[in-house]
Amino acid sequence: MSSFSWPVRVYWEDTDGGGVVYYANYLKFLERARTEWLRSCGFSQQALAQDPGIIFAVVNLRIQYKRPARLDDELLVSCEAHSQGAAAIRFAQRIARRVPAVSAPAQTLAEAEVKVACVDAGTFRPKRLPSFLMNALVAPEPH
Amino acid sequence: MSSFSWPVRVYWEDTDGGGVVYYANYLKFLERARTEWLRSCGFSQQALAQDPGIIFAVVNLRIQYKRPARLDDELLVSCEAHSQGAAAIRFAQRIARRVPAVSAPAQTLAEAEVKVACVDAGTFRPKRLPSFLMNALVAPEPH
Amino acid sequence: MSSFSWPVRVYWEDTDGGGVVYYANYLKFLERARTEWLRSCGFSQQALAQDPGIIFAVVNLRIQYKRPARLDDELLVSCEAHSQGAAAIRFAQRIARRVPAVSAPAQTLAEAEVKVACVDAGTFRPKRLPSFLMNALVAPEPH
Amino acid sequence: MSSFSWPVRVYWEDTDGGGVVYYANYLKFLERARTEWLRSCGFSQQALAQDPGIIFAVVNLRIQYKRPARLDDELLVSCEAHSQGAAAIRFAQRIARRVPAVSAPAQTLAEAEVKVACVDAGTFRPKRLPSFLMNALVAPEPH
């Protein structure tokens, strides 16, 4: 298990005519946090796609929308990674709004669970997670 | 209950560097089908937002990605609407690829379940589904 | 020269918090029309990327936004292709709104000029337009 | 005149099947930089839309694409604002890639010129730039 947070600012591109963030765009925010978590572990996806030739494909996803995010909001997207079998990672993720007031707790806007499979960059067939990534997933676990 | 299908073509804008449709963009396809289903029942969301002042907000969503869609693919997005309580609609949706070969069955690429709440366009507070929409939801049900 | 039009419907995904289509999304509509023009000439970009291994990259673009498009609008995107040298195509494009009233002329929302280069799918180096495409570009020209 | 730069990271959401950033998405990056420039001058667009009820609409745009950006790239988007008449701002913008090597100059990927009009948030009719914004535009000018 490994926990991580990434800040996201809401821009015009993210909003829709309802004045709030378009529901599909929260998935972009979730993915940015997963990518930055991977980078914080020392891995670039561009590099992993070349060697050892793997990319990560979302297999399934559950998201609960609780409160809408709006233009100019500062969000914090968290991401807790768990290995699931030899070829997948399960992420528990949360999108919260940073509240300007000092000491006010962040408001949860959305919660998601995302299962990501490790696949061959060419064939999209499942591949075992590389051991260095498995180690990164297991390492921070307290015991 | 009410069933409906809507064709979607995959363009460059929908794909990502992995050569397949970006995972968040399937949610756009799902929403197009829901919007067109609503239109097929005689309702424009632009008009509903003015009078009686309602919009539809996704409350939660589950999606299972089975096979990737690619550039130029012709997809068929289905949408089966069920009323859920007085202020929400539950959609069972499926994204399939039309296979060129005559009489080949369409391949299922993704399956989703989407709960949509009817909310006030200004306050985002829950509102009862208008009766004409409730009727449209119930009407096609065989019994 | 070759002229062509393609219908586009505006969905929630296209709009922004200002209640109108987000300015970058008009470029998606322009690209759909160019892709469909190419398809109408008998070419799929997926196939061209494989053999002869070319893709089309936008080199420069000018767009003038005249009136905003809104949710549910039915647009018509036109595209007039001109060859420009041996390795590029220049498109004159227009986005118009179809007006429901019988015999009302379509309203021009945006006008664009887009220069697209033919490049190698792997290296992104310029490549000559294949002769079958050159022919398609020249063929419909009246003289 | 006023100059400003904003960093942008390239994520999967930004790329397309050609393995590079989709051409419309550069316009999102340009807009983020303009928004952050405005914020750096002390103005939130959410607030300006409420009081004095103005939003900024792009009137026309010219962009030249020189080199493609790719997944994981770190970009720097600059933005130089000039007042143009009483109701518009003209931005000269540049997107560059930060090169990892120490002391290597950033590579220019795209250059754009964007004219943005100040319009009424409700009617989209042109409005004079508020004087505090005019002052911010003029202030940094050396003379």
Question: Can you walk me through this structure?
Answer:
The structure is a homotetramer of 143-residue chains. Chain A has a single domain, classed as Hotdog Thioesterase (Thiol Ester Dehydrase, Chain A). A 5-stranded antiparallel β-sheet of chain A has the order 1-3-4-5-2. The first copy, chain A, has helices at 25-40, 45-50, 131-138, and strands spanning 2-9, 54-65, 74-83, 88-97, 107-120. By secondary structure, chain A is an alpha+beta fold. Chain A is built from 3 helices and 5 strands, in the order βααββββα. Chain A is elongated. The interface between C and D is medium-sized, with 22 and 21 residues.
Features:
3 helices, 143 residues, five-stranded antiparallel beta sheet, alpha+beta, Thiol Ester Dehydrase, Chain A, homotetramer, 38% strand
Topology:
The structure is a homotetramer of 143-residue chains.
Chain A: E1 2-9, H1 25-40, H2 45-50, E2 54-65, E3 74-83, E4 88-97, E5 107-120, H3 131-138
Put the structure in a nutshell.
The structure is a homotetramer of 143-residue chains. Helices cover 21% and strands 38% of the residues of chain A. Chain A has 3 helices and 5 strands, in the order E-H-H-E-E-E-E-H.
